[in-house]
Amino acid sequence: MSTPGLSKTANIADLPNGGGAAAVLAAGIGSFLVALFALAADKSAAIKGLMNFYKPTGPLSGVTTCAIVAWLFVWFVLDRRWRRQMVNVARIRVAAFVLLLLAVLLTFPPIADLL
After folding, report:
1. Residue 95: which of 19, 30, 14 has the closest Cα?
2. Average pLDDT of 27-50?
3. Fewer CB within 10 Å: N-end or C-end of the chain?
4. Helices (H) and strands (E) in the chain, counts
């Protein structure tokens, strides 16, 4: 069985990895944005009011909605730029992991309370 668009001699190493790297980096950015928006809504009454999209859930509704919209936008832009390219996946993984680690730290109450 052959895959449409791929020749029988195509090597996996020859396939562009930009689309996958875009998804990984966008996930790291999205995670960080959830933490950043939550911290901002927690520290600022004005931002807390802006993030309150649905009263029963409070500012969490705006925090998650804004972070999801931003994550999808970042993923779309990165995918369009990298889809046909070979990118350094090791650097992308490190960046995404650092962003995820920062997101966890920013949502950890003892650290968030220091800011």
Report:
1. 30
2. 95
3. N
4. 5, 0
